[in-house]
Amino acid sequence: MHKLDNINYLKSGNTVQQKAYRILTGYKIIHHLQDFTPVLAGTIPLEINIDGSDLDIICYWQDKQLFKDTVNQHFSLHKSYNLREADINGHASVIANFCIEDFEIEIFGQNIPIAEQYGYRHMIIEYDILHKKGEDFKSRIIELKKQGHKTEPAFAILLGLKSNNPYEALLNYELHKNQQ
Q1: CATH T-level assignment (fold) for domain 3-113
Q2: CA 132 from chain center: how many Å?
Q3: Digit-coded pLDDT (tens) for 74-122
Q4: What is the crossing angle of helices 151-159 and 135-146, to 10°?
Q5: Which end of the chain is more exposed for a tag (fewer CB within 10 A), N or C?
Q6: Where are the domains of the chain?
């Protein structure tokens, strides 16, 4: 289990993380999703969020209809609610978006255990890189994000990864590094 698997670290985090914790617990978002092993992923756990960064919650469902019904039951009345299905990397995915206070929230579910989902794998790799590379690297990632780059492409730029697919390149970077 990784430190980021449980949102308790947000309580003592920066201002945005503390607010995220209040939203996720006060509105019982994590509680309502508990049967789907929810994990907060993305930039806020990594402290590389910028204005407008959303709360990305990844989930593992074994029964897609039960997951959709649960999400609809607990979140459909929130502002800008939308639920859709998509095929992402060859896997059926359910994505719900809505707003609470000034946070956009995305709930992303697949029939893949959390530790195997791309969003989780990217976050853990990025966490490790940020801790090894330090604050200057983190500041440069944030600056690239402010310039409009998505997270994984920003990492690929700073790491010098040459690829048409920075998402795969980041996963391969970690694999290659671990084989050395």
Answers
A1: Beta Polymerase; domain 2 (3.30.460)
A2: 20
A3: 999 999 999 999 999 899 999 999 999 999 999 999 999 999 999 999 9
A4: 130
A5: C
A6: 3-113, 120-179
